[in-house]
Write a structure and sequence with these properties.
Number of strands: 5
Order of helices and strands: HHEEHEHHEEH
Structural class: mainly alpha
């Protein structure tokens, strides 16, 4: 019996050290060396060098001078990275329908009548999607330009500069990073009374 027990214990210790310690440390070290920004969380710093967010985590912007993100069901007030999740409300749920109608009415009042892109009123599965569609961003150009006192073309240029094309040209869709676009707007066209949340 001891002849079977010893190899089992040695194997368990060996593989625990190899796969539970050496492999994760090795992969973490290689990722940190090869992709330091991504391995560090794709953090974004403002002009003063302070961390203001991540390219991968959505934030809520409510001011009229900013692009507004997708709705979020993550956490009590949304956009909570510790409470990442969808709402689990089905398409026939009355609460979901009421929330979407209220959001749609508010968006049409702020950005004009017309059809709304789906991402303007629906939350992502995680509730933390940092991107919106170019169509969603385009609907917001006039409001942002008016609030900042600049031409719509200037806002559209900032949005275009922060639009990412599909990965490798075919994976996913074109998307606008809300945080990087809003930081670029503040850097290029500051407006003292327009404050981020």
């Amino acid at each position: 019996m001891l002849s079977h027990l010893r190899p089992a214990i040695v194997s368990m210790v060996f593989f625990t050290l190899l796969l539970g310690l050496a492999y994760p440390l090795g992969v973490t070290g290689i990722a940190g060396a090869a992709f330091p920004s991504q391995a560090g969380g794709s953090l974004i710093r403002n002009t003063q060098g302070e961390i203001v967010g991540s390219q991968l985590i959505g934030q809520n912007f409510k001011g009229d001078a900013y692009l507004r993100p997708r709705p979020s069901a993550a956490g009590k007030d949304g956009y909570d990275a510790a409470g990442s999740s969808g709402s689990n409300l089905g398409p026939l749920n009355e609460d979901l329908a009421a929330r979407i109608k209220a959001d749609a009415d508010a968006l049409r009042e702020a950005d004009g009548k017309g059809s709304l892109p789906a991402d303007a009123v629906t939350a992502s599965a995680s509730g933390l999607d940092p991107h919106i569609s170019p169509e969603n961003a385009a609907r917001q150009v006039a409001r942002i330009a008016k609030t900042r006192g600049i031409a719509p073309d200037q806002v559209a240029a900032i949005i275009a500069a922060n639009t990412q094309e599909p990965t490798f040209g075919f994976l996913g869709r074109s998307r606008v990073n809300v945080l990087t676009a809003n930081l670029a707007l503040d850097a290029r066209y500051p407006k003292p009374q327009a404050k981020a949340p």
